[in-house]
Amino acid sequence: MKFSISALFCLLAVSPALGQTFRNPVLWNDLADNDVFRVNDTFYYSASTMHYSPGAPILQSKDLVNWEYIGHSVPTLDWGSKYDLANGTNAYVKGIWASTLRYRESNGLFYWIGCVEFSTTYIFTAPSITGPWTQSSSIDNCYYDAGMLIDDDDTMYVAHGGGTISVSQLSPDGLSEVSTQVVFTSPSDVGYIEGSRMYKYNGSYYIFNTRPADAQFVLKSTNGPFGPYVVKELLADIEGPIVGGGVPHQGSLVDTQKGDWYYMAFEDSYPGGRMPVLAPITWGSDGFPILITVNGSWGTSYEYPLPPFPVPDLNGTDLFKETKLGPQWEWNHNPDVTKFSVGNGLKLETVTVTDDIYEARNTLTHRILGPTSSGTILLDYKKMVDGDRAGLALFRDVSAWIGIVNSGSDFKVSFWNGMTLNSSTWTTSSPGSEIASVPITNGTGKIWLRAFVDVQPGQVDTGLFFYSTDGVGYTQLGSFTLNNDWEFFMGYRYAIFNFAVIELGGSVEVDSFSLDAPGLTTTG
Ligand SMILES: *[C@@H]1O[C@H](CO)[C@@H](O)[C@H](O)[C@H]1NC(C)=O
Ligand SMILES: *[C@@H]1O[C@H](CO)[C@@H](O)[C@H](O)[C@H]1NC(C)=O
Ligand SMILES: *[C@@H]1O[C@H](CO)[C@@H](O)[C@H](O)[C@H]1NC(C)=O
Ligand SMILES: *[C@@H]1O[C@H](CO)[C@@H](O)[C@H](O)[C@H]1NC(C)=O
Ligand SMILES: *[C@@H]1O[C@H](CO)[C@@H](O)[C@H](O)[C@H]1NC(C)=O
Ligand SMILES: *[C@@H]1O[C@H](CO)[C@@H](O)[C@H](O)[C@H]1NC(C)=O
Ligand SMILES: CC(=O)N[C@H]1CO[C@H](CO)[C@@H](O)[C@@H]1O
Q1: Which of 130, 388, 392, 494 could form an SS bridge with 366, CB 3.0 to 4.6 Å?
Q2: What is the best residue among 67, 313, 317, 328 to mutate for testing ligand 6's pocket, by most ligand atoms within 8 Å of CB?
C-alpha cells in the first residue's frame, strides 16, 4: 500500500479533534451582543460597538474557538454630526447596540440590521463579508435588539423588542417592512427580556432572549414565525467560566457542519467588557435546547467543536505597513479621514483644539487582550507643536494616559488621570489633571509608551503606565484604578491620541503598536 506524504497530511488535517479541549473565554476581547452564524464551513461573529467607528466588527472562524477580525458591517456612523464629535457634541453609548448579521444564499448578499438610538432601523448589505458594505435602506420602526432569521423559503424575519417581543416580516428584497406583530409578552415569573436571536429547527421557530443579566430563555413556536410561543429557561444564575465574572447570557445558537449545536454567550467581565464564552447544546425530547454544563457551571473548557484551526495571534507588533488600518482597530467616533494616514507607520495630525480627550477627534482604539496584557507604542513626537498632547490611554468613561506634552520648546513625558464622563449625560465631568511628569532633555525624538492592564473582573483592577527612551528599560510613571461599573457598556481599550490645546498644525508618527499578553514586563 502506498501512502503519499500529502495524503497523510490531509488525513491529519481532517481527523476529528479527539480529546482536544478549548478554554473559555474563546477570546478575551470585549465583543458583546454576539450574533454568530455559519455559512458552509465558516463561522462569522458580529458584535456591538456603540460610539466606535467603523462599527459592528466581523470576526471569522473555522472551529468556533479561534476567531480573527476580518472587517466591519458599518463603515461610518452616518447618523448626525455628534458621531463626528462635532463642536462639543458626542454620541457616547449611542450608535451600534445589539444587531444582527446573516448571509442570504438566494442573492449572495450579507445583511446587517440594527436599530440606532431607539428610533430608526438601518440595513446595510454587502456582496462579500469583507465588503464593500453600504447602507441600503432604513425602516422607521426600531428593531430594538434585532435578531434576523432567513427562513427555508427565503422569507426574512426579524425578532426584536424588550419585555414584549415582536416579529417583523421584511419585503422580498429584505430592505423594508411588510408587517410587524407582537408575538410574546413576558410573564412576571420570567421578567423583562430582550436580546432576541431567531432560529428555525426541525420545523419549529425559536427566539432566544436574555433576562439581563442573569438568565437566558428560549421561546418556541410550532405554529410558524408569529407564534404562539411557549417559553422555557435555558439557564439562570449559573457560574460562568471567567472567575469574578457574571452569568453567561444574550448569545447565539449555531450548528456545525457535522450537526452539533453550540451556544455562544457573553459573560459580563468589567472593567474589560463582555467576553464570548462557548458551550455545547443538546436538544430535549420537548424540542427545547439544553445547555451542557460541567458540575452545574458553564465549563471553563470543553472538547473542540471541530479540528482546531489556528488564526494569527492578536499578540504581536503592528507596524502600520499597509495603507489601511487592520480590522481590529476602531476610532473613538468617526475620524476626520483627511487628518491621518497609514503606511510605514501611522501619522496623526491634531484635529481638535481642546483640553479634553473625550472631545478630541481621531483617537484610535484597540481592544485589550485579557486578563492581562500591555500595549506599547513607539511615538515620534518631533512635529508636535506648543500645547499638543499625544500618547497612549486606557480609555473608558474613567480614563488615564501617558503621553508627551509639548509646552513651548520643552517636551515632557506626562501621566494624567481623572478624565471622567458623567454617567447619566455622557458629557465630560472632568478633563483630568497631570499627576507626574519628567522632562525630556535629550532624546532622539522618539519614545516608547506602555500601558499594562489587568482586567480580571471581581477585583480592584489596575493600569500601570511606563515610558522608555531606548525600548529596553521601562520606567513607571503612573498607576490608576479602573472603573468596573457596567453602565458605559464598552470595556476599557488601549487608545492612541493626539490633540491640540492651543492650535492645530502639529502631528505625530506612531511607528508601532505592540500587544503583549500576559504583558507585565519592564524590559524590551
Ligand atoms: C456553500 O456551499 C454550497 C454547496 O457546495 C455552494 O453552492 C455555495 O456557493 C457555498 N456558499 C458560499 C457562500 O460559499
Ligand atoms: C461647528 O461650529 C462652527 C463654528 O460655530 C460652525 O461653522 C460649524 O458648522 C459647526 N459644525 C457642525 C457640524 O455643527
Ligand atoms: C422533529 O420533530 C418531530 C415532530 O415533532 C419529532 O418527532 C422529531 O423527534 C424531531 N426531531 C428532532 C431531531 O428533534
Ligand atoms: C465535579 O465536582 C466533583 C466534586 O467536587 C469533582 O471531584 C470533579 O473534579 C468535578 N468535575 C469537573 C469536570 O470539574
Ligand atoms: C451628571 O449630570 C447630571 C445631569 O446634569 C447631574 O445632575 C449630576 O450631578 C452629574 N453628575 C456628576 C457626577 O457630575
Ligand atoms: C502572547 O505571546 C506570549 C509570548 O509568546 C505567550 O506567552 C502568550 O501566551 C500569548 N498570549 C496569547 C493570549 O496568545
Ligand atoms: C536630540 C538630541 O538633542 N540629541 C543629542 C543627545 O546627546 C548626544 C550626545 O551629547 C548628541 O549627539 C545628540 O545630538
Answers
A1: 494
A2: 313
